[in-house]
Amino acid sequence: MGFAAVARVTEDRWIACQVQDDIGFGLDAGDELEVRTTICDEIRSDHKGVLIDNVGQEPAWNTHPTPIMYGFKSYISVPIIREDGSFFGTLCAIDPAPRETSLSKVRDAIDGFARTIARELDSFTSGRVVST
Q: Which residue, of 7, 11, 23, 57, is most buried by count of CB atoms within 10 Å of its CB?
């Protein structure tokens, strides 16, 4: 995937906390997207991850406005859930080309990264040291 971000997602805001951009998507840490234009906003509502191998081959997504607006063909996003059960945001990635993202090992890895991020956030806010 050519672009990945840890995003803080609230009802009103989508803020990039950390970014890896190898495709020139144009976002840096601290930048914002209009939250209503993101799939992350949907994930905020239902706490369920989304994996799209190829937007054009998936009827649920091929007319969805977000892939059209941002020009991606593949997408991964999983919720970052804090220890207290609160939703922090998402770990998300996009690519302008189709990718095989729904393989169980990819999903397991992304879910694991999201859990690690949540533990680090909890550690930071509580002053605890997390051992990994």
A: 7
Torsion of CA 96, 101, 102, 106, to 10 degrees: -160
Handedness of CA 22, 25, 26, 27 (dihedral sign): negative
**Residue range 30-64, pLDDT digits in tens:** 999 999 999 999 999 999 999 999 999 999 898 99
CA distances from 100 to 19, 26, 32, 85 (A): 21, 24, 27, 30
Q: Which domains does the chain have, with CATH numbers?
A: 3-125 (3.30.450.40)
Task: Give 3-state DSSP helix, strand, coil % of the chain, rounded to 5.
Answer: 35, 30, 40
pLDDT digits (tens, 9 = 90+) for 63-107: 999 998 999 999 999 999 999 999 999 999 999 999 877 766 788
Distance, CA of 32 to chain centre: 14
